[in-house]
């Protein structure tokens, strides 16, 4: 499925995941964590991986020029 | 925990991590049945398990070192190009898709689920359930073989009609990956449910095992590396734990080699029957406090 709007959407999603990863890494975000203070590196790495996956998917969705 | 106990658990974990019989179930059940006094809730037990898992992941990396080089290269090539042209590029993307559900569920649910079901009784019950699952997977595979009219052929010929890991669909890869979350229940085998999921997706037994082992590597390695800082907490006998981790890695390597050879023509049934028998025996032993 190739579409510019889908590629842009996935790219934006990737940026959002990076922001969430940073917020978990510096301990600002505490949602769905086992402790309520401090950095959460597992969560940060997870969202970094999701960001990478989103950017890869965006590149796959981008219509290619011949 | 004594050195002998640490080595025994290392051997047990390495051997059972890749066999479809649940390493977590055995790690909960066997110390309890042997009346060992150490507590698995002890803070030093987590670093121990981390090292054992790193041992297993290292064994899998060594076993598939050539494939991982090709997969990683394939990942970057396909990601930059935005297109998959070779089997290794497709396999790299399948592994990414399969890893994401396991990673998401692992980060958000693992500790909650494990704390809910950490008793030996529940581990024994889930071990029986794991056995029933393995038999169900094989029942469905036999039905697929009958539908494809493969009954008269030899096992090797039957297996050749099914697909390789590179041919699995992306939806199936995500489902197989999500199946790994079931293994947070002590007694349910991660490799068992992913091999079974691979069979349902139409893979050969050996390919389902290969896909399961490849899928396991980033998850086990990632979880292990992220827990490494806990190893440096005070009072952890690192030398003993390292010896157990090496033993775990050796056992995992030997198990993987055995299973890949076994699944050329073998099925999941013996492991299913073993889990049912072991789970029922453990329930009886726990009930009568033997």
Account of the 3D structure:
The complex is a heterodimer of chains A (66) and B (290). Chain A has 66 residues and is mainly alpha-helical. Chain A has a domain at 1-35. Chain A is built from two helices and no strands. Chain A has helices at 4-25, 41-61. In chain A, helix 1 (4-25) packs antiparallel against helix 2 (41-61). With 290 residues, chain B is mainly alpha-helical. Chain B contains twelve helices and no strands. In chain B, helix 3 packs across helix 10 (205-227) and helix 9 (190-200) runs antiparallel to helix 10 (205-227). The model of chain B has no long low-confidence stretch (mean pLDDT 87). Chains A and B meet through helix 2 of A and helix 5 of B.
What is the residue-averaged pLDDT of chain A? 88
Any low-confidence stretches of chain B, pLDDT <50, length ≥5? none
Approximate helicity band of chain A: 55-70%
Beta-strand content estimate of chain A: under 5%
Q: Report the strand count of chain A.
A: 0
Shape assignment of chain B: globular
Number of helices of chain A: 2
Oligomer class: heterodimer
Largest sheet of chain B: none
Which value, in Å, is the CA radius of gyration of chain A? 15 Å
Please give a handful of descriptors for the protein shown:
heterodimer; A: 66 residues; mainly alpha; 65% helix; B: 290 residues; 12 helices; 74% helix
Task: Describe how the helices and strands are arranged.
The complex is a heterodimer of chains A (66) and B (290).
Chain A: H1 4-25, H2 41-61
Chain B: H1 3-18, H2 23-33, H3 45-63, H4 65-81, H5 87-116, H6 120-147, H7 155-160, H8 170-179, H9 190-200, H10 205-227, H11 238-262, H12 269-287
Helix pairs in contact in B: 1-2, 1-3, 1-11, 2-6, 3-10, 3-11, 4-5, 5-8, 5-10, 6-9, 6-12, 8-9, 9-10, 10-11
